[in-house]
Amino acid sequence: MKRVLMFAAVLGCFVFAGSVFAQAEGEKPAGGDKPAETPAETPKGEKPAEAPKEEKKPERRQGGSTAGVREIARVMRERDKDQDRKLNKEEFGGGEEGAKVFGELDADKDGSLSMQEMTAGLSKLTEEMARQSKAAAEEEFNALDRDSSKKLSKEELGEARAKYLELGDKDKDGSLSLEEYVEAKPKVAAAAAEEEAKKRFDEEWKNLDKDGDGKLTGDEIPERMKRALDRVDTDKDGAVSKEELETLRKSMEGQGRQRGQRGQGGQGGGRQRPGNEPPKKDENEGF
């Protein structure tokens, strides 16, 4: 009997201890052993403390792309009559609308546009130059359209503008509409620039190829070209042919156009050059 009573007492102790343990476990937070932290109450009359703000990184300034720099150089070359590396309002042109754009680009309001100001406002500059070019093309078109047919025939274009018909006649009807004439102008300008570049290339080649054998070898290869010989000498014969160098030239020009296209669409990409510094030339440019 005593054993039964002792066993019952021990069993009762286990049951009591188990209920106490279960109650203690039920009071713990679901996240673990640590009690949940409650935010400290803000004393009356005081504003709650603000969470620390994330420090904003300064935005990267955008400057002129390769194509943008070329556009600015073209504008300066064509319009900077007094060669002071700035454009005044008269040189900028464009009538009343051009004067308005000029005022927007003239950040320091000194009455002239520096290359830095034109770079900062490259998008507006490009749009205005395109507008002025279109207006000039329309004026030319109307002057050439002697029979007022809204078309320029081969005879009206003349020999001097034969390239316009060759590059601009999209519908192949033997004449140019105003739209075709406007679109042909930059194509003709690009073709003329390529022809001029090819002419310079041929002259440089003659100066380099002393023995006239059609290849550059030994001392005929300029030092800066030797540093990039792996790129130029594609057939790995230790010499540079005219064709190899011509291929490199066209490849570099193509890469420049691609960088320019990526940089456009606003202010352009790439780092802005301080002041009026010209862009650095590629080590192989002009070999």
Largest sheet: 2 strands, antiparallel
The coarse silhouette is flat
Radius of gyration: 38 Å
Task: Spell out the helices and strands N to C.
Answer: HHEHHEHHEHHEHEHHEH
CATH architectural group of the domain at 65-140? Orthogonal Bundle
Structural class by helix and strand composition: mainly alpha
* Extended strand count: 6
Order of strands across the main sheet = 1-2
Low-confidence stretches: 7-34, 56-64, 260-285
Strand content: under 5%
In CATH terms, what is the fold-level topology of the domain at 65-140? Recoverin, domain 1
Tell me, rounded to a whole number, the average pLDDT. 77
CATH class of the domain at 65-140: Mainly Alpha
Q: Helical residue percent?
A: 40-55%
| Number of helical regions | 12
Assigned CATH superfamily of the domain at 65-140: EF-hand
Distance between the termini: 116 Å
Write the layout of secondary structure elements.
Elements: H1 2-26, H2 66-79, E1 87-88, H3 89-92, H4 95-105, E2 112-113, H5 115-120, H6 122-144, E3 152-153, H7 154-157, H8 162-168, E4 175-176, H9 178-208, E5 215-216, H10 223-226, H11 229-232, E6 240-241, H12 242-263
Helix pairs in contact: 2-6, 6-9, 8-9
